[in-house]
Amino acid sequence: LFMEEFIRGLPKVELHLHIEGALEPELIFALAERNGMTLDFPDVAALKSAYAFSDLQSFLDLYYSNMQVLLTEEDFFDLTLSYFARVARDNVMHCELFFDPQAHLARGVPIATQLAGIERGCQEALRRFGITSHVILSFLRDMSEESALETLEVALAHRHRFIGVGLDSAERDHPPEKFVRAFARARQEGLRLVAHAGEEGPHHYISAALDELGVERIDHGVRCVESPALMSLLAERGTPLTVCPLSNLYLKVFGQMSEHSLPRMLEAGIKVTLNSDDPAYFGGYMNDNFLAVQEAFGFGRGTWIELSRNAIEASFAEPTRKREMH
Ligand code: ES4
Ligand code: ZN
């Protein structure tokens, strides 16, 4: 109980959060009503009963379907501020959030609308809660590289509104190599680079994201434990992994939390961080993830401090902000 209070009170940094994955069922219904849309579910309870996933794709189908209620700048603002209001209670002090522009562009929502709403939500979070944040534009890997490049060109009119690019969505059969040109273009613009790899996909996707795309952080990366050579490399280079324990459980990457590769990665000296991924879908926000890990592994205070330091160091926060957080 003492450890639980200690973990709840720890100042936290979230580096792996899809803002569309913070869309709670109640907000889905509120936005649908505001936008005059009819949902496939009669009420919140019926929608929630669909939140049982067998793998990544079964989750993504519902995730893309639900986000159709996001149409206006106000919708993106309300979503973003609702996330920050929730994690202020978990003592989150800094967050780097992903958004999926291609998913909204496909419905005719301009990238300027998306970015304006998200940015205003981030500014309000700083004003109300003192939480700092950065936005990362994520390419959908199940779409073409041409689409990624077009999206990046349109987004570059708002270059100052995002700090980097990422790569997400259905991983299997969509290796990092597919996006070499898109990441090279982003690098040219001085953008920071991250990519999802080794969540459902094989460990060699992690190596490819590092070597072919030149990413600075790996999102998930939990399947690195299948290659001892890769684990040594990650530890040597100090490459941060943004691990999402409840996500991995809900998407059946691991059968139980006790089987999660987190302790093996820590043991190998890899810079692991803990994050929530899609908190409205996977049973909880930062503290829920931290406490689920503690229940399974019973870490001591030293490990929790190490995880917290890793997240501050792995962030793209300004050096002065990093010093403040330490
Ligand atoms: C995602 Cl858990 C996960 N994996 C890959 N892409 C995603 N987009 C949103 N959540
Ligand atoms: Zn993710």
Automatic annotation (TrEMBL):
For this chain's record, the cofactor binding note is:
Binds 1 zinc ion per subunit.
Enzyme Commission number(s) from the entry: 3.5.4.2
Domain of life here? Bacteria
Binding locations of Zn(2+): H16, H18, H196, D277
Q: Where is the site described as Important for catalytic activity found in this chain? A: H220
Q: State the InterPro entries in the record.
A: A_deaminase_dom, ADE, Ado/ade_deaminase, Metal_Hydrolase
Active site positions: E199
Q: Which reaction does this enzyme catalyse, per its entry?
A: adenine + H2O + H(+) = hypoxanthine + NH4(+)
One example of a Gene Ontology biological process annotation? hypoxanthine salvage
Q: Which residues form the Adenosine deaminase domain?
A: 11-326
**Necessary cofactors:** Zn(2+)
Q: Which GO terms describe its molecular function?
A: adenine deaminase activity; zinc ion binding
Where on this chain does substrate bind? Answer: D278
Task: List keywords of the entry alphabetically.
Answer: Hydrolase, Metal-binding, Nucleotide metabolism, Zinc
Family matches, as Pfam families: A_deaminase
GO CC, sorted alphabetically, is:
cytosol
The UniProt family comment states:
Belongs to the metallo-dependent hydrolases superfamily. Adenosine and AMP deaminases family. Adenine deaminase type 2 subfamily.
- Per its UniProt record, what NCBIfam families does this chain match? aden_deam, PRK09358.1-6
Q: What does this protein do?
A: Catalyzes the hydrolytic deamination of adenine to hypoxanthine. Plays an important role in the purine salvage pathway and in nitrogen catabolism.
| HAMAP family (alphabetical) | Adenine_deaminase
The identity of this protein, by name, is Adenine deaminase
